[in-house]
Amino acid sequence: MQLKIYDDHHKLSDAVADEIMSLVKTKPGAVLCLASGETPRLTCQLFVQKVKNEKLDISQLTMIGLDEWVNIPPSNEGSCHYFFKNELINPLHIPEKQVHLFDAMSDKLENECRRMDALIRNNGGIDLMIVGIGMNGHIGFNEPGVSFDNYSHVIDLDETTLTVGQKYFKSKATLQKGITLGLKHLQESKKVLLLANGAKKAGVVTKTVEEEVTNTFPASIMQTHANGFVMVDREAASLLKQKN
Fold it and tell me: Is 219 helix (H, G, I), strand (E, B) or coil?
């Protein structure tokens, strides 16, 4: 794992957008896994601008969504589906066949997990995974206590996630479970970028980078990834002992 610190959220996001651009240019048929949420939103917007400015061909790119709230419909503005549709799919006119998201409204969620696992396996694995970090150290919906050996799975959401998650919804949402790629997918991804910005994330960044690797704080698994990068702005890095 390597740590990269940027002056602000914009410079951080621009660097991540450049990583995606480089991936597509090097391997047009790459598999890209993305998280939704506030931290990667600017990255997505900058990537859209860069693709349009450079007229980059993304017609062979496979995109995979990291997770989804169970029983939240795609039309809900708080869903991960809604995020990807508005930030990437619609602006870039990406065909549905290139984008693979969990159907969290399915009555056979285990089948959804196996479908996503098979998709990743049949495409040769994830080339680049871009994730955020929750206030409890979760990545995707891999909550504290989760096995590092899980592939896609359904999970009961941690109380912190249930509380913080309400910020994505205009009205109070009934949240109980999530469906998510597992930390085994992260370990097997060829390259992983974990993003964090703002002073509120300084504590969790410190735990991720400088404290013990434990499933009680899932993001600490980043320390074990040979091609993993923790990419943060200066505010998020403010409590680190080593800031260079």
Answer: helix
Dist CA 148 CA 226 (whole Å) = 16
Token duo for residue 212: 């013990």
CATH number reported for the structural domain that contains residue 112 in this entry: 3.40.50.1360
Assigned domain for 114 exists: yes
Helix (DSSP H) and strand (DSSP E) numbers for the chain: 8, 10
Active site residue: 9, 19, 112, 138, which one? 138
Catalytic entry in 9, 127, 136, 225: 136
Contacts of 31 (CB under 8 A, 6+ apart): 62, 64, 120, 123, 124, 125, 126, 127, 128
Query: Residue 171 belongs to what domain range?
Result: 15-190
67 classed as catalytic: yes
d(CA 95, CA 225): 32
State what percent of residues in the chain have pLDDT above 90. Answer: 99
Contact 196, 205 (CB under 8 A): yes
Q: How many CB atoms lie within 10 A of CB 35?
A: 24
Name the DSSP letter for residue 7: S
- The answer to whether residue 240 sits within a structural domain is no
Helix-, strand-, coil-residue percentages of the chain, each rounded to 5: 40, 20, 40
Read off the pLDDT of residues 14-50 as tens digits, 9 standing for 90 and up.
Answer: 999 999 999 999 999 999 999 999 999 999 999 999 9
| pLDDT value of residue 18 | 98
Catalytic, 111? Answer: no
